[in-house]
Amino acid sequence: MADDSTATIRAMFDTREAADLAVEHLVQQHGISRPDIFIQSASDQNTTGTHSSRGDVARSDATHEGVIEVSADIAASKMQDVLKSLTDSGAIRVSGK
Q1: What is the gyration radius of the CA atoms in the chain, in angstroms?
Q2: Bridge partners of 73?
Q3: Would you say the pTM of this structure is higher than 0.90?
Q4: CA dist., res. 49 & res. 36, Å (int)
Q5: Could you tell me which residues come within 8 angstroms of residue 47 by beta carbon, excluding any fewer than 6 positions away?
Q6: H-helix or E-strand containing 82?
Q7: How far apart are CA 67 and CA 20, in angstroms?
Q8: Of 5, 31, 32, 51, which one has the greatest count of Cβ atoms within 10 A?
């Protein structure tokens, strides 16, 4: 019998560019639907990450107040592969439950 349970995975990124790359990997490599992936500030501050990835330099409102969180509910059987993919995409911290 296959394990069809789900797990929530969370990854923290220093830049929006790295978070966007991670989302692309989740969609293209792991078949996770885009509406099931969430990107948000890891704190209560509006942020583009802890430092610029150069794509946000032209914006005057692009604050660097903290890390960006990417989260998704995934099949528990994909946990190890998704953890590795997020780490390879530049995550500074990854956790899954």
Answers
A1: 14
A2: 8
A3: no
A4: 22
A5: 41, 63, 64, 65, 66, 67, 68
A6: helix 79-88
A7: 13
A8: 32
Q: What does DSSP assign to residue 24?
A: H
Instruction: Go through 14-44 and write b for each residue having 16 or more CB atoms within 10 A of its CB, e for each that does not.
Output: bbbbbbbbbbebbeeeeebeeeebeeebbee
The torsion region of residue 35 among left (phi > 0), alpha (psi -120 to 50) and beta comes to alpha
Length of the chain: 97
pLDDT computed for residue 86 by the predictor: 94
Query: What local confidence, expressed as pLDDT, does residue 22 receive?
Result: 95
Mean pLDDT by 10 residues, the chain (97 residues): 78 90 95 92 67 55 73 92 93 89
Domain ranges (residues) in the chain: 15-96
**Phi, psi for residue 89 in degrees, rounded to 5:** -80, -5
